[in-house]
Amino acid sequence: MKYDIIFVGGGQASVFGAYEAITKEPSKKILIVDKGRMLRQRVCPKEKTDECVKCPTCAIIYGVSGAGAFSDSKFNMDYRVGGDVHTVTGKQIVNETISYVAGIYKEFGFDETPVGLTYNEKMEEIKRKCIENNVQLVDTPTMHLGTDGSRELYTKIVDVLLEKGVEFSTGADIEDLIVEDNAVKGVVVSKNGEMESYSSDNVVMGVGRSGAKKMMKLCKKHNIAYKAGAIDLGVRVEVPDVVMKDINKNFYEAKMVYYTEKYKDKMRTFCSNPSGFIAVEKHSDDVILANGHAYKNKKSTNTNLALLCTKTFTEPFDQPFEYATAIARMSSMLTSGKILMQSYGDLKAGRRSTEERLSRLNIIPTTEDYVAGDIALACPKRILDNIIEFIEVHDKVTPGFASSDLLLYFPEIKFRSTRVIIDKNMETSIKGLYSVGDSSGYGSGLNIAAVMGILAARNIVG
Ligand SMILES: Cc1cc2nc3c(=O)[nH]c(=O)nc-3n(C[C@H](O)[C@H](O)[C@H](O)COP(=O)(O)OP(=O)(O)OC[C@H]3O[C@@H](n4cnc5c(N)ncnc54)[C@H](O)[C@@H]3O)c2cc1C
């Protein structure tokens, strides 16, 4: 079967890419291939059993509409957040396309007013404290749909794609690319235990963080130009809402960047979820990662956010992905396949957390998918030192942050270690092969994934 465009991975980048292509050129024959299920069938058994039953293909991570389906859907309206594709395309086109995507959200009934557009006195005070403590506050306007709103939006978009004739092949794991004379000719997938191939002269690879390893494998096999990228490694912390009240109320999310005194490494806050919930990402039986989300209509009394260290390795080391995976495995070895959790008080006291010690705190964890233990047994010293330094600095901006009531869930990792070489149309060194979203190494958020998918689609449909 020959298609005009095949999108591999049905996440944010592909959904918006396919929407752009089919809207501009309704006659195009488009296929979206995804390892997971269709959005409506993406049901996590944990919703009923309250415990992860370790499905072979995790419905939270894999499936049509990607990581965005279960994300908090904070949509950042600025090129500085969510990736750095502007280093390839320039800033203006990224910002213009972000506004264009916000317009599509609006078409589907999501017309949120972004927060963070103007500063009140409280915000000025927070900014001043950041300046005093060498913290960069990346204050960009943000729309927030919530996990429930986000699912509703994607359900509507996917329904429109189906109506317009876009085809989906789900349960289909990309095995290989068909490349002839340095031009892409199609893809090979494994589906229900059999190999199937689909032809096309235009293949858009957007397999997200969950498919980043596969992307790297394909780059190596087909000599697709790439370079080793950075790895983001750290913890997801959970803190009582009252501590974060001023930031949550005024910014919803305050993105902070800090370079540590000790190692000069870059630390940043990421994906803050006021009144949110801790989420568990199961990449495989022994790679279990912490994450977080927040609903629009269901609230906890805790805020969670990631504290991540961006680590770029120097020669001769070129396996950041394997390095981060080994750390995740070490953590999972200590917990028999759960996330590792420790209170900041216990971490500083050099002792493991226990349920009994946790019960003395003011905070109740929003997940039960953890084992209380000692993060120092699994986290490299340099990363842990950076995390501790960042927590102490955060405390100066947000008094109460560095208390014993801060819970640390380990590990949170953003796998985007391959940076595929692309041009301003997202095309790789292989003709007709495009690389978009998180798995390209340029994206880490919904805004940039959608922008990249759209830019690739525009180039293909002209
Ligand atoms: C819990 C959580 C909360 C988040 N919250 C936010 C937020 O509030 N704001 C924000 O901007 N970003 C957020 N993010 C990040 C955001 O979701 C991603 O940056 C975005 O979804 C990336 O889009 P993508 O299309 O590149 O990849 P994804 O959306 O991850 O989609 C990748 C797709 O590829 C498929 N796939 C993977 N491997 C294969 C394979 N081998 N074969 C075939 N298909 C494959 C997957 O099933 C998936 O559908 C969050 C992420 C998570 C996990």
How is the topology of this model organized?
Elements: E1 2-3, E2 5-8, H1 12-24, E3 30-33, H2 46-49, E4 74-76, H3 86-89, H4 91-107, H5 121-132, E5 135-138, E6 142-144, H6 146-163, E7 167-169, E8 172-180, E9 183-191, E10 194-200, E11 203-205, H7 212-222, E12 226-228, E13 231-240, H8 241-251, E14 255-259, E15 266-273, E16 277-284, E17 287-293, E18 302-311, H9 320-335, E19 339-343, H10 344-349, H11 355-358, E20 370-372, H12 381-397, E21 407-414, E22 418-420, E23 433-435, H13 446-461
Parallel strand pairs: 1-10, 2-3, 2-11, 3-7, 11-23, 19-20
Antiparallel strand pairs: 4-6, 5-14, 8-9, 9-10, 12-22, 13-18, 13-21, 14-15, 15-18, 16-17, 19-21
Helix pairs in contact: 1-6, 1-13, 4-13
This protein binds flavin-adenine dinucleotide (FAD).
Flavin-adenine dinucleotide is lined by residues 8-14, 33-36, 62-63, 66-68, 70-74, 82, 173-174, 206-211, 214, 271, 279, 281, 291, 293, 437-439, 443-447, 449.
What does this structure look like?
It is a single chain. Helix content is 32%, strand content 27%. It is built from 13 helices and 23 strands. It has helices spanning 12-24, 46-49, 86-89, 91-107, 121-132, 146-163, 212-222, 241-251, 320-335, 344-349, 355-358, 381-397, 446-461; strands at 2-3, 5-8, 30-33, 74-76, 135-138, 142-144, 167-169, 172-180, 183-191, 194-200, 203-205, 226-228, 231-240, 255-259, 266-273, 277-284, 287-293, 302-311, 339-343, 370-372, 407-414, 418-420, 433-435. An eight-stranded mixed beta sheet has the order 5-14-15-18-13-21-19-20. α4 (91-107) crosses α13. It binds flavin-adenine dinucleotide.
